[in-house]
UniProtKB/TrEMBL annotation:
Short name of one Pfam family: FPL
Superkingdom of this protein's organism: Eukaryota
Gene Ontology CC, one term: Golgi apparatus
Keywords from the UniProt entry: Autophagy
Protein's UniProt name: FPL domain-containing protein
Residue intervals of the FPL domain: 42-192
A GO biological-process term: regulation of autophagosome maturation
């Protein structure tokens, strides 16, 4: 309904951009009646900002001056079951992915707006929202570096006390969808590659560091499952047993490659913790089990 209005010839002008922002700021609540209109506004803003980042600095200055990201946060908070979350995250992902200038990225990560959007209490009810959310997180991780990472953490004294991008991402580490798992692992590796000592102190300290022991326990469970299939004395069809062995082996290989990627980051503290978890959670228990089994056979 409103698409043709917002697709006018001069839609990339600063004047038109201000009009779109003004319309968005007039929205007090998002519901099923105005959802499509708000989606059109969000799409127009992202398209204009993406254009301005590359072609017209005045557009992004306008974006900063009017604190449009604050309105994105407000739209999320005034949402009345309109399912505006998914398109908002989708358009934000597109905007962040297409940003080239350091100024634009630095601004977007400043002021806590991105962290507020990350930490918003979304209702993941089994729909597509989780995919859009994880894509949003991954888009952010693709733009972080040693200079911008500090904008996404909360520091008290000399310690990082909050890092929503990392901790919220880990909630989806074992999601049922393989694509989401893969995206989270890519995000995590991006963070490991650019983190400084303060961030690593946060990552490698409980309860956040429990992620690594959970990874090892997951690998151990997969190994036990493979062992069970291999030595099952029940009457399992040969093809079914073969398929089970291949499936479990593939899962184990995926986990081992992920551990390899983590260790390849080359951070001594990270390598030490991951190695300790592998030894204490997988290698030593497996060796102990073999020794006990051997003693039982001898006796």
């Amino acid at each position: 309904m409103f698409s043709s209005f917002w697709r006018s010839i001069d839609r990339f002008s600063v004047q038109h951009f201000k009009c779109v922002i003004s319309e968005l700021q007039k929205v007090k609540v998002v519901n099923e009646h105005n959802r499509e209109y708000v989606v059109d506004l969000l799409q127009s803003i992202v398209e204009i900002v993406t254009y301005g980042d590359r072609q017209d600095p005045l557009i992004f200055e306008c974006f900063m001056e009017h604190q449009v990201l604050a309105d994105f946060v407000r739209i999320l908070k005034t949402n009345e079951n309109s399912k505006i979350d998914a398109p908002l995250l989708q358009y934000l992902s597109i905007m962040i992915q297409n940003m080239d200038s350091e100024q634009a990225i630095y601004y977007c990560f400043s002021n806590g707006y991105i962290n507020n959007i990350i930490s918003h209490p979304y209702k993941f009810d089994g729909g597509d929202l989780a995919s859009y959310y994880v894509s949003f997180l991954r888009a952010i991780s693709g733009k972080i570096n040693g200079d911008t990472l500090c904008l996404l953490v909360k520091v008290h004294g000399d310690a990082v006390v909050s890092f929503p991008l990392y901790t919220e991402a880990l909630r989806f580490a074992y999601h049922e969808e393989k694509m989401i798992q893969t995206a989270i692992r890519s995000l995590v590796l991006n963070i490991y590659n650019v983190s400084d000592d303060m961030v690593y102190q946060f990552i490698l300290t409980p309860p956040v560091s429990e992620y690594f022991s959970d990874l090892v326990h997951r690998l151990r469970d997969l190994c036990f499952c493979l062992d069970t299939i291999l030595y099952d004395k029940g009457e399992i069809e040969i093809q079914k047993r073969k398929n089970g062995l291949i499936l479990q082996s593939d899962k184990i290989v995926d986990e081992l490659y992920y551990f390899k990627d983590i260790l390849s980051v080359g951070k001594p503290r990270l390598t030490k913790l991951v190695t300790e978890n592998l030894l204490n959670g997988l290698v030593f228990p497996a060796l102990f089990s073999l020794l006990v089994s051997k003693d039982n056979d001898v006796s």
